């Protein structure tokens, strides 16, 4: 009887873990900036340098891929990853920005989520082992 209950609890915990995992699998930040000021704040969050890789979709329909080299008041400079050629882009010309780097808060949330999953798995295994020891001993 206890073995059946332990098995059911174990299956429930595993099912919960499988359903929670995709929520933490966020690898791409994708948002539409509504105003140039909001876009400017997002560019600042990405930072500058070769690790600040982004894909920019302009209102004209053109797409730019590269990294943010410099951010100014009214525009920013992107450099192409392959050719390293600079392109100056006005914040008002941007329709959408996508980047692959995560904010510090997102990284912390992912770490906490992974820690919680590991804790739950260890707790579930420990409870199954404890129930098995109780059943085997009596």
Protein model, in words:
The chain is of the alpha+beta class and 138 residues long. The protein has 2 domains: 1-26 and 114-138; 28-101, SH3 type barrels, CATH 2.30.30. Helix content is 46%, strand content 25%. The protein has helices spanning 2-20, 36-46, 104-137; strands at 29-31, 53-58, 63-71, 75-80, 86-90, 94-99. Strands 1-6-2-3-4-5 form a 6-stranded antiparallel beta sheet. It is rod-shaped. Mean pLDDT is 77; it is low at 21-33.
Relevant terms:
alpha+beta, 6-stranded antiparallel β-sheet, SH3 type barrels, 138 residues
The CA-CA distance between the termini, in Å, is 13 Å
Q: Strand tally, please?
A: 6
- How many H/I helical runs? 3
Proportion of strand residues = 25-35%
Briefly note the CATH topology name of the largest domain.
SH3 type barrels
Number of domains: 2
Principal-axes shape call: rod-shaped
User: Element order, helices and strands?
Assistant: HEHEEEEEH
Widest β-sheet, arrangement of strands? 1-6-2-3-4-5
Weakly predicted, low-confidence segments: 21-33
- Assigned CATH architecture of the largest domain: Roll
| Mean of pLDDT | 77
- Judged by helices, strands and strand pairing, the structural class is alpha+beta
CATH top level label of the largest domain? Mainly Beta
Q: Helix proportion of residues, in percent? A: 40-55%
Q: What value does the Rg take, in angstroms?
A: 24 Å
């Amino acid at each position: 009887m206890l073995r059946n209950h332990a098995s059911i609890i174990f299956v429930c915990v595993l099912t919960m873990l499988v359903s929670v995992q995709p929520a933490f699998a966020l690898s791409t930040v994708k948002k539409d900036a509504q105003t140039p000021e909001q876009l400017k704040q997002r560019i600042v969050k990405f930072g500058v340098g070769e690790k600040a890789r982004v894909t920019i979709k302009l209102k004209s329909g053109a797409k730019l891929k590269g990294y943010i080299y410099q951010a100014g008041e009214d525009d920013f400079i992107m450099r192409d990853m392959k050719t390293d050629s600079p392109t100056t882009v006005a914040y008002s010309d941007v329709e959408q920005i996508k980047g692959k780097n995560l904010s510090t808060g997102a990284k912390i949330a992912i770490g906490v989520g992974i820690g919680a999953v590991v804790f739950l798995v260890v707790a579930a295994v420990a409870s199954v082992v404890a129930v098995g020891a109780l059943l085997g001993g009596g």
